[in-house]
What we know:
Belongs to the MnmA/TRMU family. By secondary structure, the protein is an alpha/beta fold. Helix content is 24%, strand content 31%. The protein has seven helices and 17 strands. The protein has helices spanning 13-24, 48-61, 71-87, 94-113, 155-158, 170-179, 201-208; strands at 4-8, 28-35, 65-69, 118-120, 125-130, 133-138, 161-162, 216-220, 225-229, 252-257, 262-266, 272-283, 293-298, 306-313, 316-326, 333-338, 341-351. The radius of gyration is 22 Å and the shape is globular.
Amino acid sequence: xxxxxxxxxxxxxxxxxxxxxxxxxxxxxxxxxxxxxxxxxxxxxxxxxxxxxxxxxxxxxxxxxxxxxxxxxxxxxxxxxxxxxxxxxxxxxxxxxxxxxxxxxxxxxxxxxxxxxxxxxxxxxxxxxxxxxxxxxxxxxxxxxxxxxxxxxxxxxxxxxxxxxxxxxxxxxxxxxxxxxxxxxxxxxxxxxxxxxxxxxxxxxxxxxxxxxxxxxxxxxxxxxxxxxxxxxxxxxxxxxxxxxxxxxxxxxxxxxxxxxxxxxxxxxxxxxxxxxxxxxxxxxxxxxxxxxxxxxxxxxxxxxxxxxxxxxxxxxxxxxxxxxxxxxxxxxxxxxxxxxxxxxxxxxxxx
Length: 352
C-alpha cells in the first residue's frame, strides 16, 4: 500500500513540480491550498488566480485538491506580529512565522486529519536521516535555497516532511513542469508579501495601523536633532533614502528607538556591527549547544553566511562575527550553519 502525502499547492511552479515528482515516485498524492486571505486578495501568490492554477495542476496530475480556510489563524499568527513588530521599531519576517504556524502547523494538522503519512512543499531545502536524527541542509540551488526560513523545524517535524526540490535547480523544476504541460511552468515567482499590496508596507501600515504615523525627531548618534520622521514604523536599519535630510554626506538609519520615538542616524561605518544577540533560539536537532562553537551565520535571506562564533545562553545566543556586518536588524532572523547544514536560528533582539 502506497504512502499518502499531502502537498501544499500554492498555484506556483515549485509546488506543482513537487507534486509531480511525488506522484512519479509512487506516493498517493493529495493537493491542498490554504486560503489565508480574503477571496478578493489580488496578490499573485494567494489570490483567486493562484487557487484556480492549483486546481488546474491537480486536475492535470489526476489528484484530488482541497481548499482549506486558515484566515483567522494567519491573521493571529502572522499579520498581527508583523504589525506590532514594526510599531516597536523592528523589521519582522512574516514568512518564517507563516512557515512555522501555517505551512508546517495548520497544514500538517489538516493532513493528519486526512490520514496522511507525510506533508510536502515546494521549498528548496534538503533533509537526510543519519545516526538516528534528521538533518537539514541548504539546497543544491543556492539562489533558491530556503533553509534560512525553516530554522524552527525540529525532529518531530522533519520525520513527516518531504522536500522533493532540494536537489533540483529552479530551471530544472520549470523544465519538469513544462514537459508535463502544467500551466504553472512559466509562471513568475512572487516577490512580495502576500498580504501587503504592491509590497508597500508603508501604505499598508497607514491603512491598518494608523497609529504608526507618529512624527518625532531624527537625531545623530550624539543626540543632535537633524530633522523629523513620520513614525519609527516606516524606517529600517541601514536605510539611506527617504530620510529628508540635506547634509554634507549620506546618513543611514543606525537605530530605531520606539519608546523615545526617535530615529537615530549615522555615517556608514556606524551601521556595521561585530556582534548581535538572538532570542527564541531553536536547534534543529532539539539538542541545544551548551558551549560556544564556530560556524557560519546568516542574518538576511539574500546574503552568504559569514564566519562567526556562536555563544549559547539558555534560550538565547550571542553571535560574534569575524568581521563587521552591515545593518544587523532587530526582528529579522539569524541562523547558524556548519558547512551546508542548518544547525539553529533565532530572532535578532539587539546588536552591539
